[in-house]
Amino acid sequence: MIIGVPKEIKNNENRVALTPAGAKELIKKGHTVYVQHTAGDGSGFPDAEYVIAGAKILPTIEATYEIAEMIMKVKEPIESEYKLIKAGQLLFTYFHFASYEPLTMAMIESKAICLAYETVEKKDRSLPLLVPMSEVAGRMAIQKGANYLEKPLKGRGILLGGVPGVLPAKVLILGGGIVGTQAAWMAAGLGADVTIMDVSLPRMRYLADVMPANVKTMMSNEYNVRTLIKDADLIVGAVLIPGAKAPHLITRDMLKDMKPGTVLVDVAVDQGGCIETCRPTTHENPTYIIDDVVHYCVANMPGAVPYTSTLALTNATLPYAIQLADKGWKKAAQDNADLVPGLNVINGEVVYEAVAQAFNLPFTPVEKYLA
């Protein structure tokens, strides 16, 4: 198969979908890998390393899309890329369709095969291609939140871990999944007073067993959320419903109950956000303020640490990419059930129910294409 790796062009997105080591593994299997000129530079992988691995360098994004049977990306295509996508072409990337209707409609119109990293799912309901970036984003949420709590950045002027004789900051984490767990570990390690909220008692029992003493758990419901936000200094939104729009756990009216300078970090922003006042921001302009509350809502947080993120992502995606290249998307999905829920749009039809529901679109069961 011919694989194309275009350069990411979303604002301040420095990751690349495939490392030179990953390219070499695909080439060893007999596949051809084309990488757009400077695609890996932001992650610390220059063209020369891809050439040594056996990949071919193409000068433009247009040439990369034109030649490839499978496109490997990190972030969803943006508007300038829509016209480059061909019917029948396989796109293997993060899409987060449910949060952005124009992208969904463009991919339907393209008649491409859209296989979304974020909805590839194992039998145990884990999301193997979302986990590595969730781990990065969860840890970054605390790193960024601690930074924006500083007064020059309009935060409360509070040190996350406190000092002897001064209480630490209170960190509230909404969601006890991968993002929430990683955020809690980081916040706890810095000495903060941490509370994780979730709706699953088994999950909270697990977290209570493994977390240090400065991490507490509480059932997530509106009453409890409204109570805890009054004292929180840093609130991390870490809610995920696979493939669907995130629910709003913090509504517009709740901001008035927060202390001035409270920092909100909504990691769920690429699925619509679990904070009603959240809107996607970029690393270039990461924050905005509403009712004296600082909102950090960068939609590609791991893009700020591209070396770490690219290695972590390729570690997870490469085994699936090899299967797709070896067998084609249909046979690969037939042989590996993990890939089936990853299929979101096929030949102009929405085959992932949550995406169809998000925009009231016709839904076609994916089995139509795998029978």
From TrEMBL:
CDD domains: L-AlaDH
Catalytic activity line of the entry: L-alanine + NAD(+) + H2O = pyruvate + NH4(+) + NADH + H(+)
Domain of life: Bacteria
Keywords tagged on the record: NAD, Oxidoreductase
SMART domains xref list: AlaDh_PNT_C, AlaDh_PNT_N
Gene3D superfamilies, per database record: NAD(P)-binding Rossmann-like Domain
Domain named Alanine dehydrogenase/pyridine nucleotide transhydrogenase N-terminal: residues: 4-137
Pfam families for the chain: AlaDh_PNT_C, AlaDh_PNT_N
InterPro entries per the UniProt record, alphabetical: Ala_DH (IPR008141), Ala_DH/PNT_CS2 (IPR008143), AlaDH/PNT_CS1 (IPR008142), AlaDH/PNT_N (IPR007886), AlaDH/PNT_NAD(H)-bd (IPR007698), NAD(P)-bd_dom_sf (IPR036291)
Top-level enzyme category: oxidoreductase
EC numbers for this chain: 1.4.1.1
Protein family per UniProt: Belongs to the AlaDH/PNT family.
UniProt name for this protein: Alanine dehydrogenase
The organism of origin for this protein: Algoriphagus jejuensis
